[in-house]
Known about the structure:
Layout: E1 11-16, E2 28-31, E3 34-35, E4 38-45, E5 60-73, H1 81-88, E6 89-93, E7 101-107, E8 114-119, E9 125-142, E10 148-158, E11 162-163, E12 182-187, E13 190-192, E14 197-205, E15 208-211, E16 220-224, E17 229-237, H2 242-249, E18 252-260, E19 266-280, E20 290-297, E21 304-310
Antiparallel strand pairs: 1-2, 1-8, 3-5, 4-5, 5-10, 6-7, 7-21, 8-9, 9-10, 9-11, 9-14, 12-13, 12-18, 14-17, 15-16, 17-20, 18-19, 19-20, 19-21
Amino acid sequence: xxxxxxxxxxxxGLALEATPGTPEARTVWLPVVSASLQRVLGKDxxxxxxxxxxxxxxxxxxxxxxxxxxxxxxPCFEGFGLLWKWWLGSASTGAASGGIYPHTYTQARTLxxxxxxxxxxxxxxxxxxxxxxxxxxxxxxxxxxxxxxxFDLLAYEPAAPGSAGTPTFTxxxxxxxxxxxxGDLSWNSRTLSSDNIQKVTISLDNKIAARxxxxxxxxxxxxxxxxxxxxxxxxxxxxxxxxxxxxxxxSTADLTLTLTGTGSRTLVLTGSDAYISSHSRxxxxxxxxxxxxxxxxxxxxxxxxxxxxxxxxxxxxA
Length: 318
């Protein structure tokens, strides 16, 4: 009887591509919380009326071949810049002060293309996906848990499984984020105290899709199909009516949240021109009443901006 493979040692390797769709050696390796990334083949029955005397359709058409799925990892104060750039689109680094470099990640119309390698548990194999684009990402910060970053991939050059690469981990993995490092949330001259926040979810949907083409089952490079969408959802204790008043008055302002790690390392998240798109406070028990605020950010090209301050001189280093 064959021994089944286990999920132990599932790892993701990434590298930004100089030429979209052309594989690059992986430069950043991250342990994986979960992954559904896989090769997806589109095959459909041929809808002819001639069944060769049978009662079932006897022909099918294989029309597409791409990589897609979701990967969940733990974000860190260092060694995570490649994913921030890949998600948002652009990165720049300012001058260091006291050994700390500010790296600014902003949205870009054209998203970077990356090579992703998913090591398939303890099988000794991996699958490489060139031309990988981040179609959607979500950063979740919740009390009692490590922060999680989940991202959906579209890759137009998937390969068959082969021998796994050799992951190289850095000390950056020892600098994880969690709600413990999160501070107050600021918006519209109001402060939502960290004492009252239970969970914050930052979502950026890049609205990209595969582009089927003539001459190949594989698509062309994925592209935007609509305006991107930035949503910031805050779950907190219900303790004031101010936010409902702001919701009704249609107030708009920048929203900021800062996570502070060790050694002056920080991550500052800014949602530009944010307004409250929904407000709810259901009453369902005798305990603390919870309120959920959803902010929609409408800044033109900077609806979401991240600034990572850390000891790395390169904005995308491992």
